[in-house]
């Protein structure tokens, strides 16, 4: 179980480049038995991860699942300010540790918004459950 608190200044319902600055930026969490790496895909010239985190608004990849978005509940007409958002989420897949007992935890965003995103991770807590 992941408990994450982030501060977001992305308003709810706002329009943006490629998508909403809050509603099109998805918070994702999960785990992997192998270290996640970033690589440049030569076919689309975009950076990708070596583990399956799902794409954009997809609910889940094997290594990470979508918690929600970072829209802060304020309207786009209000003075921009950071609002703390608390989310709890249980990843949809069972992830086993590597044979050496290593487990890589993933917390991040997957964005359709093509502008600058500013969030602060204020707290991340993870409860792991042994699998029998």
Structure description:
It is a single chain. With 132 residues, the chain is mainly beta. The protein has one domain (2-126). It has no helices and eight strands. It has strands at residues 2-8, 25-32, 38-41, 46-49, 64-69, 83-89, 104-111, 119-126. The strands form three sheets. It has a three-stranded antiparallel beta sheet, with no helix packed on it. The protein starts with a strand and ends in a 6-residue tail after the last strand.
Short note summarizing the structure:
This protein has 132 residues and is an all-beta fold.
The mean pLDDT is 90
Query: How many DSSP H or I helices?
Result: 0
Count of folded domains = 1
Order of helices and strands: EEEEEEEE
Radius of gyration: 16 Å
| β-sheet strand percentage | 35-45%
Strand ordering within the main sheet? 6-1-8
- Quickly give the structural class: mainly beta
Total strand segments: 8
Estimate percent helicity: under 10%
Low-confidence stretches: none
Overall 3D shape: globular
């Amino acid at each position: 179980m992941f408990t994450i608190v982030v501060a977001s200044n992305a308003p709810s319902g706002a329009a943006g480049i490629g998508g909403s600055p809050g509603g099109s930026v998805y918070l994702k969490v999960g785990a992997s038995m192998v270290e996640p790496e970033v690589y440049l895909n030569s076919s689309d010239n975009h950076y990708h991860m070596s583990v399956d985190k799902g794409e954009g608004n997809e609910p889940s990849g094997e290594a990470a699942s979508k918690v929600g978005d970072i829209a802060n509940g304020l309207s786009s007409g209000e003075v921009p300010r950071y609002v703390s958002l608390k989310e709890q989420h249980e990843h949809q897949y069972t992830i086993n540790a590597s044979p050496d007992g290593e487990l890589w935890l993933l917390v991040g965003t997957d964005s359709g918004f093509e502008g600058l995103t500013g969030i602060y991770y204020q707290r991340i807590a993870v409860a792991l459950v042994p699998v029998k």
